[in-house]
Amino acid sequence: MSRGKLRAIKKKVEATKSLMKITRAMEMVARAKVRKFERAFKGYKEYMDEIERIKNKLPLKGLENPLVEGVGPEVLVVITSDLGLCGAFNSEIIKAAEEEAERAAEFKGYIVIGSRGVAHFRRRKLIKGYEKLYDMPNMDVASEIGDHLISLVRDGEVGRVRVVYGRLVNALIQKPEIVQLIPVEASEGDSMLEFEPVVSSMAEDFLYFYISSKLLYLMFETKVSEYYARQNAMKNATDNANEMIRTLTLEYNKARQASITQEIIEIVNGAEALKEIEEAG
Predict the structure, then answer these.
(1) For the chain, what is the mean pLDDT?
(2) Do 262 and 181 have their domain in common?
(3) Spatial distance between the Cα atoms of 174 and 176, rounded to a whole number of angstroms
(4) pLDDT class for 196, splitting at 50, 70, 90?
(5) How buried is residue 65: exposed, middle or buried, by Cβ count under 10 Å (0-12/13-18/19+)?
(6) What is the predicted pLDDT for the residue at 190?
(7) In CATH, what number is assigned to the domain containing residue 250?
(8) Cα–Cα distance, 59 to 53 (Å, whole number)
(9) Are residues 250 and 210 in the same domain?
(10) Residue 198: per-residue pLDDT
């Protein structure tokens, strides 16, 4: 093998080592951030469980309210990330959203959270896109988006809202999930309780609060899933880079040894030829 080829292999090894340093650093950053988001999500999950318990005590079934009735076209809220380098996380959510849109009997369009999703759906029935609104999800953002959804329902433009988000199965598995946000799933309520003022008046405020809270919960879970996906993607990239360095180093050493062997053979052959010339003279 030529010296030029050896130099090329050595450059590849050095470039891969530099890349591995970057992916390892990004893995460490993702690992630190996911701990912060997971702690916040755990606390909010307990809060959301209590809100669900309250909802199930309210007699919302049969209530004449568009947020419970669910009559009209469907809108999909798609929650993606603002940043990439998280493997197939965003592409799987986008694919699930498009498949759900095809199944809908009457589909109005997409409301997308996250730059990655907005970039994809910009020319595909995008009603509204929200980009780089938050690092840590918060109620202000959830309320802004929730108010927009509720206004669409109140105006009769939309009857059903489903959310496509990144569900956290565990640290290694994150997958797209679809849940119904509007109409709010209604129950008969707790017959042992009496409400003052009337339920219809109280339910109006509660439904607004519930929709925003549920949306915040889904945004939180997607954020935690995103960082786990990024941590796993960067770990895989680091492992692959390490394996490539090992393979290239082995190839370099074999090539270098073959080159040295070839040089020795040429020296020996030259010496033998010189000896033959001297003996012939």
Answers:
(1) 89
(2) no
(3) 7
(4) low
(5) middle
(6) 61
(7) 1.10.287
(8) 12
(9) no
(10) 60
The answer to whether 234 and 84 have CB atoms below 8 angstroms apart is: no
In a domain, 26, yes or no: no
pLDDT grade, residue 64 (50/70/90)? confident
Residues 123 and 242 in one domain: no
Tokens of 188: 């008969």
Amino acid 118: pLDDT: 96
On whether both 65 and 128 belong to a single domain, the answer is yes
Residues 6+ apart with CB under 8 A from 68: 60, 61, 183, 184, 186, 203, 207
CA dist., res. 201 & res. 63, Å (int): 11
Whole-prediction pTM:
0.84
Phi-psi category of 87—alpha, beta or left, where left has phi over 0 and alpha has psi -120 to 50?
left
Same domain for 265 and 186?
A: no
The DSSP secondary-structure symbol of 44 reads H
Give residues with Cβ within 8 angstroms of 132, minimum separation 6.
82, 115
Burial of 46 from C-beta contacts in 10 A (0-12 / 13-18 / 19+): exposed
Average pLDDT over residues 183-196: 70
Find the mean pLDDT for residues 157-172: 94
Mean pLDDT of 104-115: 94
Residue 225 sits in the same domain as residue 240: no
CB 234 within 8 A of CB 37: no
SS3 for 125?
coil
**53 and 115 within one domain:** yes
Lowest pLDDT segment from 24-38, 46-60, 97-111: 46-60
Q: Is residue 189 domain-resident?
A: yes
The answer to whether the CB of 207 falls within 8 A of the CB of 68 is yes
**31 in a structural domain:** no
Domain boundary among the residues 193, 214, 231 is at: 231
Q: Burial of 17 by CB count in 10 Å (0-12 exposed, 13-18 middle, 19+ buried)?
A: middle
User: Which residues constitute the domain of residue 101?
Assistant: 37-231
